[in-house]
Fold this sequence. Notes:
Blueprint: H1 2-12, H2 18-30, H3 49-79, H4 90-123, H5 130-140, H6 142-153, H7 160-174, H8 183-223, H9 225-234
Helix pairs in contact: 1-9, 3-4, 3-8, 4-5, 4-6, 4-7, 4-8, 7-8
Amino acid sequence: xxxxxxxxxxxxxxxxxxxxxxxxxxxxxxxxxxxxxxxxxxxxxxxxxxxxxxxxxxxxxxxxxxxxxxxxxxxxxxxxxxxxxxxxxxxxxxxxxxxxxxxxxxxxxxxxxxxxxxxxxxxxxxxxxxxxxxxxxxxxxxxxxxxxxxxxxxxxxxxxxxxxxxxxxxxxxxxxxxxxxxxxxxxxxxxxxxxxxxxxxxxxxxxxxxxxxxxxxxxxxxxxxxxxxxxxxxx
Length: 235
């Protein structure tokens, strides 16, 4: 899939005006606050209808492909607590990281749907089993999907370790003397235990999402003629 995409993007360099527009867009991005400067790069470049549809498939796949990496990066969000001395508690930090973690699976599902819509728009009739892909995704990551739904519609996420952290921090807040009774060390222990568990979960689940993405890529190569042609041109 990578070879096919690289070949497709290299071919776009031959499209009239595309390379020049890309160069101009860099300048526009760097100077976007200069509202007095006329520029035609505020709008997206328009290809012919066929190329536009093919390009949409590529860009949607890029977004999907990035999601597992974004999920894996959350490992470091869990492992670091850079908010000492602020109003942000370790409990709040972990809870927010968990909710961000769950949101990545919903994001992946929505990006997958967007990709499949782009494929249908680009190639018309095909034998891609879209429904089966969506159902498989829901099954593979059922726990994450359910928690995301619960967080979005009902209440923020909590598990036993995070709830324990909440209680410890509240005791320390209401009675500062408890900090001298070993609760500071206990808070650190509970936080590290929970953070390590969630960090490992980010790594494991991102690898599973990567495997799912590879299956999607294989399916796309079979149903997208413009990707097949790019492969044959590079072989």
